[in-house]
Every structure is written in C-alpha cells, then in structure tokens.
Amino acid sequence: xxxxxxxxxxxxxxxxxxxxxxxxxxxxxxxxxxxxxxIMEVYAADKFSVMGSGRTSNTVHERTLPLxxxxxxxxxxxxxFEYIWNAITMGGNEWDATFQERLYGEAKKLVDAGVxxxxxxxxxxxxxxxxxFPGIPVTSSVNNHxxxxxxxxxxxxxxxxxxxxxxxxxxxxxxxxxxxxxKYPQHPIIVLVNEACLPDCSLQAYHQxxxxxxxxxxxxxxxxxxxxxxxTTAKMKNPVYSLKAPWVxxxxxxxxxxxxxxxxxxxxxxxxxxxxxxxxxxxxxxSYEGDIWEFIEKPGSVRPEWEAAAGRKLEPCRFKINNKELxxxxxxxxxxxxxxxxxxxxxxxxxxCDRWMHAVTCPTNLLERMKDxxxxxxxxxxxGCP
Length: 386
Prior knowledge:
By secondary structure, this protein is of the alpha/beta class. Helix content is about 40%, strand content about 10%. Strands 5-4-3-2-1-8-7-6 form an eight-stranded parallel β-sheet, covered by helices on one side. A two-stranded antiparallel ribbon has the order 9-10.
C-alpha cells in the first residue's frame, strides 16, 4: 500500500495489460500541463485465477514478472494498483472449505504483494474478504448492477463495500450519480465511461457466467463467446447502437465529476499498450479530435476464434464517430430529460441518438462481416442434435 498518498478528488482508473513500461508513460501523462484528470490507479487480473474475472482468458495478456514488480513500479509513480476478482459465479464452490482455503491463499499472496484494493462481485467472497483483510478496500463490480440508491444501500449494508462501481448501463445518468453521492458522500463513486455494450443488454448475466468460467484456474473452459457474436450482429444491423451504448466523451466527463463521481473507469485491459496510452491521454486531457469510437472498448469485430470459424483472416470492421460532431449530445442526459435517465423506461422512444447519426460512419465491409457472423454463429451453435 502507498503510505501517505494524498487522495485526488478527480481522476482516472485505467486498464493494465501487464506491460510494466506503461507506468512511466502514465506518469508522463500525469505530469503534462494539459492533464485535467490524472491517472490515479490501474486495474488488472491474470489470465486465470482461483476466483476468475470478467474477461475470457484468451483475450487478456499474460503476466511475465512477479506481481510485486508491477506494484512496486506503479507505486513508484504514485499510481495505485487494484486486482480484479469480479467473476459473477464460482459454480457454488465458494461454500466448499477447501476452495475457500484456495481463495484465501491467492488473496494473501496478492495482499502481500502490495495490492491496494480489490474489485469483488460475489457476496460471500466480499464478506470473507472483509474478515480476512479488514484494511484492504473492496470495490463493487459492474456485475452488482448498482443502478439505484436502494441497491447501493442494500449492498453496503450486506457486504460493507468501500467503493461504489456504478452499473455500466447508467454512465450517462448524471441525476443518479448525484443522488447516490448525496446519500453516501464518503463512498467514492466509479463510473465506466467507454462501454460498448447494448443498453439494457439481456445477455449480460449469461455473458458474465461465460467469462467467469473461462478465466477460472484449471477450468479448461474455452467455449465460443456466443454473446459477442449475437451483440455484434445486432450492432451491425442497427448502427445507432454505437451512440446508444452508454459511453461518455472525454469532454463530458466533468459532468459526472461535478455530480459526485470520484473516478472515471476506462475499460480495455485486453488492448495494446499504445491503445491504452492514447485512450488515457484523451480522457486525461478531457478533449479529443478524431474517431472517438476507437477508444470505446471492443470497437471492432475480430476475435481469434471467429477467424478459425471463418477459415480466413478477418479485416477489422469498425464504425467511426467524429467526436467533435457530438458537441451538445450529452445535454439531455445531464438535464435528465431523455426517458432512459428520466423514467428508466429503457431506450427507443425519444430518438435522440438517431438525430446524431451524422457523426457516425459505417464500415465499408459491414455486409461482408454480417455474412461472416452468420457462419461464425452456425459454427458456435451447431446444426441441431445428431
């Protein structure tokens, strides 16, 4: 743990891909005169762990050095390090005494290595962790779906979490952030601001079960990511989803800070170091000129298993969004006048996002990729019982 570090009021929580040289580059961002929101912490998880995490093992990077080396380097640059233990399920194994010993053993190694905090989803594990290591802060997960003051109240009472991770569907809900902060001013609120998921995605729970099993040590579970196939197809058929996804422009995150948020979380620990740094600069500077969709996590439609199913190398198929053409887009979300934040009745009635489609450029290979996805879907689902 960092001793005597002054807590910043506003800053970024950035993904880490086990490239130790990133910390020096992040320190340069923090020292830049243009920086409005410094990188306060990074978060990471190994490909596999006893608990598992929210990313499939075949998409994340391999750790090559002892964990202590990364944490020491992070702390040397005044950056905190959070470990991700956010698998949504352990298949009931969390009640097994032997499995609990394994969980404790892994947690003890992480704490001894100097990890500053943990993101945890599982209720029993939260309670166990608070007893095992009462001095280590626990952050809730997006998988806890904290989308109301009442849900936040319940989780704090049940598990005594230290930090509130807002539900990823509500990153533009400025009014909700304000209400939660008013009720729990001592609990830092973290908001994910580069999320590409569909609004009110019905596949989220199933998808998180898939990633949990895929990232659990010894699982041997490497099934195709069916949810990614389905949601990518939906986005291809309905390009307006690129604006409906609950991400927030770098220029607009100040509204979230003003409402009471403490950290803006950036997704992308599956990405390259160059991508992480370019995205971090955009949000640290609070300004970006160019294609902002590049920094919304999972912007393309290429995965290793998809290429295997298609039988060929797939070229990226990405939307593009001119960031500067979205000046003013956030206003009704801040005012609370659009239905998705005013009444929480979901998306599709006001057509606000449709009005801004002039900022979106569709991929030239859109139809080709949709045909690829049909083949990939057939490969994943199969043709029926033998």
